[in-house]
Automatic annotation (TrEMBL):
GO terms for molecular function: isomerase activity. This is Xylose isomerase. Residues 58-228 form the Xylose isomerase-like TIM barrel domain. It comes from the Bacteria.
Length: 389
């Protein structure tokens, strides 16, 4: 979906396909047919954007077979789908029964992360619509926090510098500008937007910036205006933003609240949980740890890294951090010029929701994703953007 910003530029809205992950190229083509096109039809649009997730094997198949890449581009066009952004965070196995810490491998100290991201950039340059010259890729925020010493930090900096040089060469060769954004996430080396400033300043290249995920922003209790103003002041570009909402518990000391939270403690993904105390941010790596160990103070609100559907906050006594998303979006695209032109709804946890909240079958999932995109569209038009045909 495309929108005209009051400054005349085009803002793109997509939804991320890691919600129905596929490890192979055949699987990617099938998800376009079985999931993405039905979402488009429910929205009644001739064209919608998708933030494509290409696992290692699917990406490698496309890089090594130009005819397969042309076939994917044809399939996208035929089904009314366009790609201006890729999710390059998960490497493989995102649909496995247990993902947890494995999603952070390989990290930016491993040469394979550089190789994979370079492959994605080359593919995106070929998949961009004919009238679009800029693409974006989100990637993990360097590494999980431990162990990450000075030597590993230097390895990551060297890899990102090499990536920036490769993106320069790609732009010169193709006329397509691809930028990559580190996605701050609780528990990682770059946990907050503030943490991103120093390593990105060390790289010092405008093709490498930040992907602002509004669930992660909220989970770390970051104020959107403060965070985004700091990035702007530091000259760090917001490459893209993922529109997502975290799980919020206002009174985690109450038994009924803890019972409600326990329903979201599931085995597939990490749900880092945070609370803001007088001495700073405190947290655990997972929601179950927070509930069972007493490691997290419960005198103030808790937020958990669980991407809940944008249009459907959990039932009381829980809620979501949709207000943080609204504030962030107003700062991102509500000003005289957008800070980013690529927005991606990324609720990948539909099938990890408590059983009563999970969609039953493809049709209900498509309806839910379409409802999220409708909400995001309404937020954008409320900010003065005009939807384009």
């Amino acid at each position: 979906m495309r929108f005209r910003h009051p400054d005349g530029s085009t803002v793109h809205l997509a939804y991320c396909t890691n919600v129905h992950p596929a490890e192979t190229l055949d699987g990617v083509v099938a998800q376009l047919r079985d999931h993405c096109e039905p979402v488009r039809k429910r929205l009644g649009r001739d064209r919608i954007g998708i933030g494509l997730w290409l696992a290692k094997d699917a990406a490698r198949a496309l890089v090594t077979d130009p005819s397969a890449l042309r076939g994917l581009r044809t399939e996208l066009d035929r089904r009314g789908l366009e790609v201006v952004t890729l999710n390059g965070f998960p490497y493989e196995g995102f649909g496995d029964d247990e993902v947890k810490y494995r999603v952070y491998k390989p990290d930016w100290t491993d040469p394979e992360r550089l190789t994979h991201t370079t492959d994605l950039a080359r593919l995106l340059a070929s998949l961009l619509p004919d009238d679009v010259t800029e693409g974006t890729i989100s990637t993990l925020p360097l590494a999980w926090r431990t162990p990450f010493d000075a030597g590993r930090a230097e390895s990551a900096r060297t890899a990102l510098t090499a990536l920036a040089q490769r993106l320069d060469a790609l732009a010169e060769l193709t006329g397509r500008s691809i930028r990559v954004g580190l996605e701050p996430e609780p528990g990682c080396t770059v946990e907050t937007t503030a943490d991103a400033i120093a390593p990105l300043a060390a790289v010092g290249h405008d093709r490498i910036g930040v992907c602002v995920d509004t669930c992660h922003l909220a989970t770390s209790f970051e104020d959107p205006a403060t965070a985004l103003d700091a990035l702007t002041t530091a000259g760090v570009p917001v490459v893209k933003s993922q529109l997502s909402a975290a799980l919020h518990a206002e009174h985690p000391h109450l038994p009924e609240v803890r019972e409600a939270l326990a329903a979201f403690d599931e085995p597939r993904f990490l749900h880092q949980t945070r609370t803001l105390t007088a001495t700073g941010l405190r947290g655990t790596d997972d929601l179950g740890e927070a509930l069972s160990s007493g490691a997290l103070p419960d005198t103030g609100p808790w937020r958990a890294h669980f991407h809940v559907p944008l249009h459907a906050a959990p039932a009381a006594p829980l809620t979501s951090t949709l207000p943080v998303l609204r504030d962030a979006l107003a700062r991102l695209v509500g000003g005289p010029a957008p800070l980013t032109r690529h927005l991606e709804v990324e609720t990948y946890t539909w099938q990890a929701l408590p059983p009563a909240l999970r969609p039953r079958g493809r049709s209900q999932l498509a309806e839910g994703i379409a409802a999220e995109l409708t909400l995001a569209r309404d937020l954008l038009t409320d900010l003065g953007l005009k939807e384009l045909p």
